[in-house]
Each structure stands twice: as C-alpha cells, then as structure tokens.
C-alpha cells in the first residue's frame, strides 16, 4: 500500500486580497505519479512553491512523511527530500553542467570544491536514470532537452525522493516528452513520489496514477487517470469544452503569400533562414512545425519587415514586399500575432485604448490631419474588447496588468479586426489555458473560413495538427518537408523536426 | 640614462601607480560578480585615503614603522563602512545601482574635506605623512641578474601584494564553494535562491569586499603617492579601476593586468621627463594621457566584454 509522502490540509495562500490557494487538501503518495491539473492561474504553481519552500503559506498545514513541516526556505525543502524541476529553468547559463548541479550542495576537499567526486557521482546518476548530459559543457551550449535533464539531475543529486515537475514538457519535442514520461514512471516505480503539474491532458493521462484538478485556487476533485479527456477538461475549466476544430471545406484560393528562396542572415553573416520557399493560398491554414530556434522567429520577422532579407523574394497578394517596412506590410493587409506578446505585441505600460489603436491610430477614423480623435478610439476599443471577450477592469488599465490570455485576445482583436488577407500567428496560444486556446483557435478558423490565408507557426505539434490544412516542417532554417496534414503522423513530424526528410521519416515509421 | 635605469624607472613607477588600481579593481570585481554594479569605487577610495591619512598622522608616533600598514587596514575598514550605504541602497532598497554609486562619489569628497577641516583646524588639506609606504628593495629576489635589479629594486611591495591578492581572488572565485555561490547570485539570483543560497548575504559580501579592497586602494594611493589628503588625492583612480575591471572582463587576473596597464599610463607623466625624445612633449599631454587611454580602452573594449548576466539587477525574495 502506498505510503503518504506529503499531506496538506487547509493550505491557503493570499497575496493581498487575492486568494491563490483556498483551503486545499491533498495527499501525495510514494510510488505514484500524482498529476495536478488546472488552468493558468489556478494556483498549481503557488501550491508547489509552498511545498518547495519558496513561498510561505498564509494558513494550513503541510505534513511530510507524517511529520508537520514548516518550510521557510528552499533549504528546508531540500533537507526533507523535496525537489522541484522548475518551469523556467533555474540554470546559470555560463556555468558548466556540473557546477549547476552541485551549486548549493558542493562537495569540498580541503577548502576546494571536489569537482572530480562531483562528476563521478553525477555520471553515476546520469547512467542510472538514462539522463544523457555533457558534464563539462556550459548550459548556454546545450539543447533545451538536455537543460531539462540537468534540472532533473540537480534534484536527484540532492537525493530528493519527492519530485515536483512544473509544466516540464512545454519546450520539448514529442520524442523528448516520451523519454521524460518514461523517466517519471521509473522514478515512481523506485518508490519516489512524483508530482506533475500540467494542463496537457493527453500526457497526464499517459503517465499519472491519479489526477487532482484545481480551479481558481480550490480543489475540485481527485480522479483516477483513466478519466476521459473530455471530463477532465470540463472539470478543469468549469464548463463544457469543445475540442473539435471544425475546418469547413474551402475552395482552393489564390496564392496570398509566396516566399521564394528566402535567406536571412544576421549581423555576423550567420544564416538563420536558408533557401526557404513556401506558398500559401487563401482559405487555408499552413502550419509551420519545428523546434524552437530553427529559424522560425527570423522567418516571421523577415516577412513582417522586422529583419532585413539577405536574398530571395516575398510576395504578398502578388505584390513584392521583400524589402518592405513593417507599416507597408501591415498596409498590405497582413495581421501579425507575434511570438512574444509582451515584447512585440503590446506596449505593456500603455493603456488598452492606446494598445488597441497601435496599427491604425494614424489614419481616419482614429486620426484627422495628424490629430487623434480619442472619442472614436475609446468607442472602437470598447467595441473590440467586447467582441473579442477581452476581460478587463477598465480602459485605463495598463496592457501589462491583463492576464496572459487576455493580452493575447487584445492582440488578436487588433490584428484580426482589420480583416487581413494574411494572418501570421506565431505560438498564438503559448502558455494559455484550454478556454483561451479554444477561443483563439476559433478566431483563426474564422479567418480561414472568410477566405483568408493563415500562417501558423507553433512549437505545439498538437495545435499545428488540429488547425492546419497543410504542414511544413522547418529545421535549421530550411523546410525539410511539406504535406497535407492527413498524410502525416505525429511521429513522422517529430522526426522531421530533428532534420529528417519527409521520405526518410516515412520509411522510418513504416518499419515499426 | 642607460636602458637599465630607464627600465627600472618605468617598471617601478608603473607598479607604484598600479597598486591602488589593482586593489580597487579586484574589489569591484567581487561586487560586480555578485551582481551589484559599483560605480562608487571612486568615493570608496576617497574615504579609504582620508581614513588612512588621518590614522597615519594621528597615530604615527604610537606605531612607528608599522603605521602605514595599519593605515591600509584602517582605509579598508572605512571603505567597508562607506560601502554599507551602497549595499543597503541597492540590495535592500532596490535603488538603481548607478545612482547609488554616484551618490557615494558625490558624497565622499565633500564629507572627507569637511571632516579634514574639522580635524585639522579648518585646513582643507593635511600635512605631509611622516610614515609613508616607501618603495623597497626585496632581498634575495633583487640579486637575480638584470631582472632582479629591474623588478625588485626600489619597487612597490604593495603592487606585488596586489598581484598576490589577484591570484588568490581568482582561485577563490573558481575553486571554492564561496566563489561559486558568489558568482551564481551575480548570474542568476533566482536559481541560487531556489537552491537555498542567500542572495542577499552573498551580495552583501560582494559589496563589502569592494569597500574593503577599494578602501585599501585609496589608502595605498594616499600613503604611497600623494602622501597627504586633500580633495585632489583621488582624481579618477576609482573610475580607472572600474574601467580596468571591465577591460579585464570581470576576471581578477584580467582586472589586475588592466590595472597595471593603467598604472603604466599614469606613470607616463613621470617617466616622460627622463626619456630624451619625448621630454620635449608638453607635460599636459602626459597628465591627461591616463584619462585619454581610459576612454579609448572603454570605447574599444567595453562594448565587447560580457558582464555577469544579472549585474545591475535587483533581486526580490518572494514570501
């Protein structure tokens, strides 16, 4: 019978008036993978931060191994065998892998750090759990997947037997996700307690023994992992969620975006996009799949006029916009939902009206003879916030004070309300919860149904497969393959994301 | 003047002038590696210089030949006290590091001159020290043919001490638990915090070390070069040290090398008089040379060298 590792009773955390965790009761057992499911802002991370000593509870009790624990710092949690793999990696970029793992728990010999012993111990752990690392490489030089393995080793090195994983799969390829889920199962089978925080239903059901659903700081239910995806989603959101993405059949439209042999080099003459060619028609969604850092950002910035093009040609609606400025691109009827809403999509310290008017403030009806008409701006903003369901307190609110989902909806309202013939959306739902994702996907499909072309660039393979008519896979700045969505399996796309050609990917998966 | 004597003069003068910069630049290195930018090094040097001179003049009769060496420690102690202002302002009150450092720089000369007037009957500058840090000839080493004469005769013992401290600092930063943790709070304080390392503690240590070493730097300057204290005792050496640590890529050995280079630049004014070809160049050029060279180095190199990732940022511990 499973023995309780952690038992929390009436756990509450307030930040001012805001109750992030409201009397949570939860038992986590050794030998189990316990999943915590909830939307963004539901309070999952807050709770885990209390268990790892980063936050101190307002009230309630935490028992670890049957004894009351008063966690005041990360040190206390470590001493009790609790370790957290953080969502945003807590790694020092220019330290070696070894130094990152031992930091804070350094073995010493005669006043000097004993790096030889550290390396031996770490490599033993690395082999035991099949966590491949390069011990002497610097963090900045290794892949995201390996960085995560370093995070896990950091926790194991401290001999934690209660491991918390906070949204660990957000940055991984499908193959890396499978590996990680295997490791979690292995840890649980050794008798360790594993807590997995996520809002990806499929992987939770794949790996967890039990799932606890949290909504708005309150525990809703603890259910077995065999519970259906639909039921889990409904419990998480608190209403019925529609997962089906209906793509109405559309006639073949005229080419809207044509990219020919595009090359984008940076200042140091390093090519991030090489000989990339794509064609996108009205009435279709083209999904561009790929691992982060394979030239997607540079490609989008080149099309939208934010980066200079080294060679090649970009045609939008038949017009040559290869060297156009961002405003010329906008005026060629392009809507851009940028990858980083806080850096490129919005001006965080400016209010909602100003942010909503960013693309159109300079021309009628918002401006006349160079003077802005604030009354019209306010009216337009109110209307759009309403149409696109942007939840806000008032119009004078700073864009930075909106939640992530509402910030994204504000950008979508601004970009799609202009009825653009080409929509470029990069990671439009990154970090958002099921409800917001449902809404944003519906808006992109609506643009498609209106005969517009949508270029969807996403690191989330599920999203690309759900929405796209066709999928192109980018690797190292080049399109390695392109096909109708129905012709490709998830595995094949995953292989292509690592640089395999379409033919190879198909052969490799047929053998299985 | 033969080559031998010329080299001796160049090297010993460079070392004398670089000693204050080495200590101060190393102090700055500790502060910046912990994530606190310290442009207040100039002010810290002023206070260190002031403290050591007052001690040297008042206690010289008591301690005799030991006085200037104790004066260094007094300068260091005053530097620690003065740097507390910067530590509290930047670490606890989250003031912008540049502004807080500038406050130190504006406050120090005014405060030190005011106190000088209080202590020395209204005069703005002190008497000449009776127990300065003289140049020494190192026994044994100076007997080495040719090199011994150039490097170890009538030379600055403190510069060699500074080089020793630089090597020690490098070793500490690279090989000890303390060094690794200090660097971690300067690179990624949240990561350090998540591993139970006290960011505040290590940043305090970083800033106070910069106070200690910067104070010593000021004391070296006053007790071995100007030999008294006035408003013009420290004229930009703190900023040169700052430039040296950046030029040296935040690395103790690099900072030391750069400090020696700047020391050489400062010694030009003195050496110039002995070199026939350049003796005719007006003095003013030699006087401004160190500053000019500093600016050129800053323009050429600073943009390319990489600061600790979290240098100049504030860390807020959540509860």
Task: Explain how this protein is built.
The complex is a heterodimer of chains A (512) and B (319). By secondary structure, chain A is of the alpha/beta class. Chain A is built from 18 helices and 24 strands. Chain A has two domains: 4-237, 3-Layer(aba) Sandwich (Rossmann fold); 255-348 and 419-511, Rossmann fold. Helix content of chain A is 34%, strand content 27%. In chain A, the strands form six sheets. In chain A, strands 6-9-10-3-11-12 form a six-stranded mixed beta sheet, sandwiched between helices. In chain A, strands 18-21-22-15-23-24 form a six-stranded mixed beta sheet, with helices on both faces. In chain A, strands 2-1-4-5 form a four-stranded antiparallel beta sheet, with helices on one face. In chain A, strand 19 (367-368) and strand 20 form a beta hairpin. Chain A starts with a strand and ends with a helix. The mean pLDDT of chain A is 90. In chain B, helix 3 runs antiparallel to helix 4. The model of chain B has no long low-confidence stretch (mean pLDDT 90). Chain B has one domain: ABC transporter involved in vitamin B12 uptake, BtuC (Orthogonal Bundle), CATH 1.10.3470. The longest helix of chain B is centred in the N-terminal third of the chain and has 31 residues, at 3-33. The interface between A and B is medium-sized, with 30 and 20 residues.
